[in-house]
């Protein structure tokens, strides 16, 4: 991808030894009970250890992300945001590979606004503990990782998808400022990895919607259509974690109680924004977690947070459009809704597919291939409307 103005910066990264040392002090203090609980919470996920085909790539990503985050810690953005924040490309040269950080100052600002400490971000993504892998049901050729604590999600992206994300980044940031309780996944970084002069591999880092993952019983990826939207469930008792799809959800409902109206309104606001970006093929991620007895009922676990990180900015042209709500007193509260019996993890992901010529031709082909059936490749307006209709029909 051509480097945008003001041109790339190239620096020599910290040594891999320094990167490996820095994040390990906390992990060395883990007790036996912590390790047992950690192992149980990772049931169905697989550590990328030595010998794994992705181990080399993971080690480069970890060392590169540690050094990239160190730059934002040593030189935090100051003053008002500028266009250069969104166009900077920083390339750090490591032994055997290069890691590029795209729009680094813009993402550092965003992480700060979300209340995410750079030290925590660096420790979770850097060397120290291996990333986790799970069996994806996605048809794309993307590679997926989870940080060891399952808080952060990493995914490889095509170059055209990265270009779309960066083009939309200023508007994405403004949308989150205007609608701080948005369901959109929180994108935290965009990077490139080049090994020994080869082709670049692009990847993104985002906050996992399914966090914290303990006690989650079911996971779904919903697009509001039927073609290729069935996943064969894992056998009963299997430790494999699968993300199911629309047809697997038939006959089920999301019981949100009084929070339903908030959810429907926020879906309208977020999908309208994606429609304006000419984006389609995004998914509503959803997971279920049964509430404990002491977590049920009004006032049991809810607090009204007025922290700056979720308050946003007033918008004179859209009075009252922020659609604030009561947030659960839990990590990742922005993507959690508590119903009467269940806790729901909800978020809109995969925000980089633009309805260009390629997708218009795909729409024409699928219209001929699947007459009378619903599929994902439709106009952004139709896609947004259909997903909102699905949510309205499957909630109560």
Order of helices and strands: EHHHEHHEEHHEEEHEEEEHEEEHEEEEHH
Mean pLDDT: 86
Q: Please count the helical segments.
A: 12
* Principal-axes shape call: globular
Helix content: 25-40%
Largest sheet strand order: 1-3-4-8-9-7-6
Instruction: Please report the total strand number as a whole number.
Output: 18
Low-confidence segments, given as residue ranges, are: 1-6, 18-42, 301-309
Task: Describe the structure concisely for a colleague.
It contains twelve helices and 18 strands. By secondary structure, it is α+β, with helices and mostly antiparallel strands.
Secondary structure: elements and pairs:
Elements: E1 8-12, H1 16-21, H2 24-27, H3 32-41, E2 46-47, H4 55-74, H5 83-87, E3 89-94, E4 97-102, H6 104-113, H7 118-125, E5 132-133, E6 144-146, E7 152-157, H8 159-178, E8 187-195, E9 200-207, E10 216-222, E11 244-245, H9 260-276, E12 279-280, E13 283-290, E14 302-303, H10 308-311, E15 327-328, E16 336-338, E17 342-349, E18 353-354, H11 357-369, H12 380-393
Parallel strand pairs: 1-3, 10-11
Antiparallel strand pairs: 2-5, 3-4, 4-8, 6-7, 7-9, 8-9, 10-13, 12-18, 13-17, 14-15, 16-17
Helix pairs in contact: 4-7, 9-12
């Amino acid at each position: 991808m051509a480097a945008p103005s003001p041109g790339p910066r190239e620096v020599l990264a910290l040594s891999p030894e320094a990167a490996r040392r820095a994040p390990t002090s906390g992990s060395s203090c883990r007790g036996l009970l912590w390790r047992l609980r950690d192992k149980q919470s990772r049931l169905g996920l697989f550590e990328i250890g030595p010998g794994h085909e992705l181990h080399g790539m993971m080690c480069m990503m970890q060392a590169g992300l540690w050094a990239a985050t160190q730059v934002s810690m040593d030189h935090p953005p100051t003053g008002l945001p500028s266009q250069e924040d969104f166009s900077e490309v920083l390339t750090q040269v490591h032994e055997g590979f290069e890691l590029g950080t795209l729009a680094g100052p813009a993402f550092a600002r965003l992480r700060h606004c979300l209340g995410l400490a750079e030290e925590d971000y660096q420790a979770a993504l850097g060397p120290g503990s291996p990333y986790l892998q799970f069996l994806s049901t996605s048809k794309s050729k993307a590679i997926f990782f989870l940080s060891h604590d399952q808080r952060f999600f990493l995914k490889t992206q095509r170059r055209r998808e990265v270009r779309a994300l960066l083009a939309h980044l200023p508007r994405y940031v403004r949308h989150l400022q205007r609608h701080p309780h948005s369901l959109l996944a929180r994108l935290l970084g965009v990077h490139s990895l080049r090994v020994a002069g080869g082709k670049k591999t692009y990847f993104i880092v985002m906050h996992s919607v399914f966090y914290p993952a303990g006690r989650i019983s079911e996971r779904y990826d919903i697009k509001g259509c039927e073609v290729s939207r069935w996943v064969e469930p894992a056998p009963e008792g299997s430790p494999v974690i699968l993300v199911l799809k629309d047809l697997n959800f038939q006959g089920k409902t999301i019981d949100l109680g009084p929070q339903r109206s908030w959810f429907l309104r926020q879906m309208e606001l977020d999908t309208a924004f994606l429609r304006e970006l000419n984006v389609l093929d995004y998914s509503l991620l959803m997971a279920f977690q049964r509430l404990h007895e002491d977590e049920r009922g009004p006032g049991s676990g809810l607090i009204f947070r007025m922290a700056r990180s979720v308050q946003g900015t007033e918008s004179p042209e859209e009075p009252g459009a922020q659609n604030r709500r009561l947030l659960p007193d839990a990590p990742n509260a922005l993507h959690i809704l508590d119903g009467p019996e269940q806790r729901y993890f909800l978020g809109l992901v995969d925000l980089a597919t633009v309805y260009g010529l390629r997708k218009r031709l795909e729409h024409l082909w699928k219209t001929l291939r699947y007459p009378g059936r619903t599929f994902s490749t439709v106009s952004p307006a139709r896609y947004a409307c259909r997903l909102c209709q699905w949510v309205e029909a499957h909630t109560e």
